[in-house]
Structure formats: structure tokens, C-alpha cells
Design goal:
7-stranded mixed β-sheet; Ig_sub; single chain; mainly beta; disulfide bond
């Protein structure tokens, strides 16, 4: 697990999770307003303390630290309010949570953190498709997240997990697992095709503000966990004007109902 104390800051990560194949190049980005004189990048691997990777001043020379010093795979830039950390020729040890931070008035403030997940292409026998890519609803609404996994039947069973990464959380947390099940899978209609499609759903009912975040479908197979691109859920507060409008409608409906009832009683009495 990752343990890291953060403070809400103006500096924010632009993406909270990035998934890529080993050997690929990735770019991690944070918003860094021009008024910030110095931006820090930290790396925190699983079970380890955070490491200071580099400091990026608004003006002057960049300084790398420790194992990152004189390592050509790591490069940084700062332009138009964006601070970027680029990693080329990624290796397994690059998998970690990366934090951008600022130091102001004696206080170190951190962004939410960017989880970098690297996968070995040799075991990339599964394709994960998620929908909807994004959903914006109000409190009380419902949404169904769907995850379709295309896999080769010869590569054995797989287990499917759902993760949620909420705003301000350093890394995704598991919320549900489907286990080893085959009833959601359907083999390709092509006779000689070894592929099958498995559909998994995660219904969310009566949405609340705490449900907001990015939902990831992940499949565990061949000794690795492969993540989908995620579905972003935004939950809006029901505005007061809408609540008052509904209350007034119910009040008017109640009044009309009572008036109708009175008229019926009078009419019945007369007859």
C-alpha cells in the first residue's frame, strides 16, 4: 500500500492513472501556475518511502537526485502552467505513484499523485473496453458501468476487479470483484477462433457525491493485472431551485387534489 500525507494544493495532476506497455515512453503532467517558483517531483514505489526525484525552478537549472541523477531516461519541462515529467524506455521499477509538489511559506503541498502502471506486452492477451467513458449525473441518479474483455480461451481463467479512484486519493481502491466466472463469457461465432468476449457490469444506484471518481475495470491473468482506460463519474449537487420547484409542484398537486375531493363530496351530498 501507499502511505503519503498530502495537503490540498493549487498544483494538481492532470491524470491520476496512466497505463502503458514496458519499454514505452510516458509523460506525467501537473498544473503548475506561473507564480510557483519551484516544483518538486517525488516517486513512491510499493512499500517504500517517497524519493525526491527532481526539482524544477521557474528560472534556472533543473536538479535531479539520487539514482535519477545523470539518467537520460528522465526529462522534465515546465511550460504554460504545466509541469511535465517524461520517462522513456520504461522498465518494471518505474511502476509507482508520482507526486508533484510545491513549497510555499514553509509548507510542502502535494497534488493527488499519478499512478503509473506498466504492463508486459508478452502477456497482453486481453483487451479491455470500458463504457461509458464518462458520465455526469445528479444525486439520486443511477448508472451502469460496463467492461468488455476480449481474451484467448487458451490462456486460462481470469479474475475481474473494479477500482475507484476518488479525487484527493493517492491511488485507486478496490470496490468489487467478480471472481472466476465463465457465465459472462461468450465464445466467438467463428468456428476456428480461440477468442471469447466477457461482459462484466457494475451498477451504481442512488448516486451521492462520494461516488464521484474514476472507475477502472481490471483483469488479473498470467500473473499480471491489466487496467482499462477508466470511466469518469461526476456527480452534481441537486440545485436548490430545482428542489423548490418540485416542492411547489407537489404542494400545488396536493391543493388540486384536496379541492377536487371537496367538490366530489359536495356533489355527492346534493345528489
Amino acid at each position: 500500500m501507499f502511505f503519503f500525507v498530502t495537503k490540498a494544493a493549487e498544483i494538481q495532476s492532470l491524470r491520476q492513472t496512466i497505463s502503458a506497455e514496458l519499454g514505452a515512453s510516458v509523460s506525467l503532467q501537473c498544473s503548475a501556475p506561473e507564480k510557483m517558483s519551484l516544483v518538486y517531483w517525488y516517486k513512491q514505489s510499493v512499500g517504500k518511502k517517497p524519493q525526491l526525484l527532481v526539482t524544477v525552478p521557474k528560472y534556472g537549472s533543473v536538479e535531479f537526485y539520487g539514482e535519477f541523477k545523470d539518467n537520460p531516461r528522465f526529462m522534465v519541462a515546465r511550460n504554460s502552467g504545466i509541469a511535465s515529467l517524461s520517462i522513456s524506455n520504461t522498465i518494471p521499477s518505474d511502476t509507482a505513484v508520482y507526486y508533484c509538489a510545491e513549497f510555499n511559506a514553509g509548507i510542502m503541498s502535494f497534488g493527488e499523485g499519478i499512478l503509473l502502471i506498466l504492463q508486459d506486452a508478452e502477456y497482453g492477451h486481453h483487451t479491455i473496453l470500458q463504457k461509458p467513458m464518462s458520465y455526469q449525473g445528479r444525486q439520486g441518479d443511477s448508472v451502469n458501468f460496463q467492461c468488455t474483455i476480449h481474451t484467448n480461451v487458451s490462456h486460462g481463467d481470469h479474475r475481474v476487479y473494479w477500482f475507484r479512484h476518488g479525487s484527493g486519493e493517492s491511488h485507486p481502491g478496490i470496490i468489487y470483484t467478480h471472481g472466476n466466472r465463465s457465465d459472462e463469457c461468450e465464445k466467438s461465432s467463428e468456428t476456428d477462433s480461440p477468442t471469447q468476449s466477457c461482459v462484466y457490469k457494475l451498477p451504481k444506484r442512488n448516486l451521492s457525491l462520494s461516488d464521484a471518481g474514476t472507475y477502472y475495470c481490471a483483469v488479473a491473468a498470467c500473473g499480471q493485472i491489466l487496467f482499462g482506460n477508466g470511466s469518469n463519474l461526476k456527480v452534481e449537487v441537486i440545485p436548490l431551485w430545482y428542489i423548490f420547484k418540485v416542492l411547489n409542484f407537489l404542494k400545488a398537486l396536493s391543493f388540486c387534489f384536496s379541492q377536487s375531493t371537496v367538490r366530489r363530496i359536495i356533489s355527492f351530498s346534493i345528489h
